[in-house]
Amino acid sequence: MAVLVDDARWxxxxxxxxxxxxxxxxxELHAFARAAGVPARSFDADHYDxxxxxxxxxxxxxxxxxxxxxxxxxxRASGLRVSQRAKREGARRQPPDWPDPAGTTAVLLxxxxxxxxxxxxxxxxDDDGEPWLVQRVRALRDGGCDRVLVVLGAQAGSARQxxxxxxxxxxxxxxxxxxxxxxxxxLAALAAAEPPVAxxxxxxxxxxxxxxxxxxxxxxxxPTPRPTPSALARATYGGRPGHPVLLGRAHWSAAAAAARxxxxxxPYLRDAGARLVECGDLDGGEDVDARPTLAP
Length: 296
What we know:
Residues 3-77 form the DUF4031 domain. GO terms for molecular function: nucleotidyltransferase activity. It holds the Pfam family DUF4031. The chain contains ten helices and 14 strands. It is elongated. Helices cover 28% and strands 22% of the residues. Helix 7 (179-191) packs antiparallel against helix 9.
């Protein structure tokens, strides 16, 4: 059993398109397509039409890239192919009945123990006593995110009490493995959310300079009015990569698989050609490792 994608060679609507198929079952195809954020409306009887920009992410998520002839041969051998004549005569399979992914949820990573910091950063407060968690959630909401999901780990019970009302919480059980574990926990929770989310904006709790205008600039870096499943962008500060990072749904599986330790998904973002969004004029982008004021 395999999900296959061919080379993007068919022009339409100002870009090139490829085909996504299964050589075993439509159930396998639909499950893979939904996880990757491929819209249900792009299903055409025996395949999904996918734009060229999605092909690398689909391959990274597990699709086998083959030539057009090989894809056609294996689709015919599977018995799933619907001929053009059958399509014209109306004998075609209906698209799956699920809503297209929409909206952006912020994923706020706040799971670490903060060893150099003096304690978990999820418990930190500013000089006026306001929790960092409250400040980051407010900035993400005011910047345009539809929802906020906070990923907790170390001292999760205490940290949960500081999460503002309306924000969701997931606990990364393997938080001690580093930022990558928190990222995987957050993206896994979003992947299971209903209705499906189009994009995640990943931010860190230890960036006190995160402001709504930074969030708005990164969200606005995509060419469409709202982020889509193919969106991929990250903030830079004086040319240095930083956060927040915009991850369209099509990139979640590949980014989570590529993340290691505290490196997160940086190598994947670079290789996948993430759009770089300079934000140095809005914020310095530094995280904080000085000893904090911690919640009791």
